[in-house]
Structure formats: structure tokens, C-alpha cells
Amino acid sequence: MDLIHPIFKWLHIIAGITWIGLLYFFNFINGHVAATMDGDTKKKVVPELMPRTLYWFRWGAAWTWVTGVVLLYVIYWRPWEGTLSMGESAGNFMFAAGTEVTQWAHIMLLVVFLAVFAYDYLYKSGLAKNLRLVTIISFVLIGGIVYSMKFCAGFDYRAFNIHLGAMFGTMMAFNVWFRIWPAQQQIINAIKNGEAPDANLAALAGLRSKHNTYMSIPLIWTMINEHTTHFAGGNLGITESTNWLVLMVMIALGWHIVFQLYKKAAKIEGF
């Protein structure tokens, strides 16, 4: 297991750079360039460019997710040490020493990997038409999950950070494979055949790609906090009982940063 950790972290970073780099290419560059193309240019460029780009995009997402789950297994869950066994924890990356491990820990692990279906349902519902409302609902739900990880499941600082990151990563990978890629296949074929792409498919792919961009910045923050406890309490007026609020602040800040990046991307012009 000691060998798996560095190898899979290396693979995780390589795959993540590939995936997120292309995500930013699509959202901050490609869309604006495509808008300047006429029909004949799109018919020539899109069927050549997009399948190649989407290949690395979707497999980067898949390998990032798979290697991330392996890292959770070898660093946090560690079943051979009984980390998730009921009873008092001896102390590890998941739980502080003396924490009582209950069924809540297992429930929240299920939430990490099943919340994607609630997310998908929410953004297919009528509530998604009201951007401000659905954003507030999303933020409150995320806050409830982080709070439950910390105070109900007893996750330690590093653990609730990285498991929220895993939840975002699961949603992002789901979007790539089950929403963006299927829609893009039909869009590419339509353009190749000289037809107008289905507007609903284009809107779906664009929306879920935008969601992934908004989730990516907070996700990176959770990964950083797997390696530091500076914001866990004892610094900057942060206490052990309020450190979960730091994560919520950084989620809001991350979303604002992405919003500003979209505004900047819209202003950059070609020669």
C-alpha cells in the first residue's frame, strides 16, 4: 500500500491536469473561437478537433476519478486497519483520536458518491430555470453535507475537505461521461452533416461543462487542504468547531473567481 500511494497520486495529478486543462480550454477559449466560425469552417474544423479533444477530456476525467477513489482507499479508508469500524477511533486521517465512529460515517460516504443523482435531478427540474434560487439551494445543500460530515459523521478536517472534493469530482466525471459526451457526439455528427445541432443538446452540454468549471476551483482547494491543517483551527481566529465554515467561504470565493474568469474570457479577442 505504501507504493500505491505515490504512484496513484502521480497518475491522479497527470490525469487531472489533462482533464481540467481541457475543461478550461472548452469554457474560456473554444466557445468564443467557435462563435466566430461560419458554417463551412465549423463543418471542417469541428469533426476533426472535437473528437480528438473530447477523447483526452473524457478519459482524463475517468482516470482522475478512478485514481482518486484508490487514493481515498489507501490514505483514508484503510479497511485493513479498521479505520471505518464502529467504536472509538485510535486516530488517523479520517477521525481524530477518541472520535466515536458510528453509522453516520458510512452514510456520509454513500452521500459522497450518490449525491450526484440528487444534483442531476435538481438541475433537470424546473428550479434550474431560476439561476439565483438553484444556486442558493445548491450552496445550502453543500453546507448541510459538510456540516454532517464534521458533526454527525465525525470526519476530521482533512477528511471532510477531501470527501467533499470527491463528491464534486464524482459529479464532474458523471457530467463528462453521461451528459456532455453523449450530447457532443450528436452535435458533432449534426455539424459534420451540415445540419443545425439540437439547441437543447448544446444547452445541456454547455451548462454541465460550466457546472464542472465552477466545481473545479473549490475541488482544487479541498485537494490542497489534504496536505495542510493551517485552516483547521488555531490560526486566523479559526477554531476547531468553525473550520468547516472556512471551506464554505472558499466554495463561495471559488465560484466568484470562476464568474470573473468567464467575464475576462469574453473580453479577450484574437488578432
> Could you state the order of secondary-structure elements as H and E?
HHEEHHHHH
Poorly predicted parts = none
Arrangement of strands in the largest sheet: 1-2
How many independent structural domains?
Answer: 1
Spatial gap, N to C terminus: 52 Å
Structural class: mainly alpha
- In terms of DSSP E residues, the strand content is under 5%
Described by the principal axes of the CA atoms, the overall outline is elongated
Which terms would index this structure?
271 residues, mainly alpha, two-stranded antiparallel sheet, 7 helices, 73% helix, elongated
Architecture overview:
The structure is a single chain. With 271 residues, this protein is mainly α. It has one domain. Helix content is 73%, strand content 1%. The protein has seven helices and two strands. A two-stranded antiparallel sheet has the order 1-2. Helix 2 runs antiparallel to helix 5. The N and C termini lie far apart (52 Å). The relative contact order is 0.11.
